[in-house]
Amino acid sequence: MDRLDLWFAIQPYVIALGIGGIIAYMFFIIFKVGRESGVGRLGMIILFIVLGAGMAGFVAKHVIMYLLGI
């Protein structure tokens, strides 16, 4: 097995780990912005819902593609 075959074998796992890490970091940034701006609990919930909706859509797209076999 040469290096290119190895890369193609591990590529989906590396990409999933990288995207997962970026999404986790973005949730940390949302939490930090909410904490530093002094919003209450409701404001923090709204921040996570609104700003997290894009990330949830990205994850949902991949889940739907997996379920449909695309």
User: Would you identify the regions where 5 or more consecutive residues have pLDDT less than 50?
Assistant: none
Task: Determine the fraction of residues in helical runs and give it as a percent range.
Answer: over 70%
Helical run tally? 2
Q: What does the oligomeric state look like here? A: single chain
Distance between the termini: 27 Å
Strand content: under 5%
**What shape does the CA trace take?**
elongated
Global structural class: mainly alpha
- Structurally, the number of domains stands at 1
The Cα radius of gyration reads: 17 Å
What's the total number of strands?
0
Q: What's the pLDDT, averaged over the residues?
A: 88
Main sheet properties: none
The ordered H/E elements are: HH
Report on this model:
With 70 residues, the protein is an all-alpha fold. The radius of gyration is 17 Å and the shape is elongated. The mean pLDDT is 88. Helix 1 runs antiparallel to helix 2. The longest helix is centred in the first third of the chain and has 35 residues, at 3-37. Helix content is 90%, strand content 0%. It has one domain (3-68).
Map the helices and strands.
Elements (H helix, E strand, L loop, with lengths): L2 H35 L3 H28 L2
Helix pairs in contact: 1-2
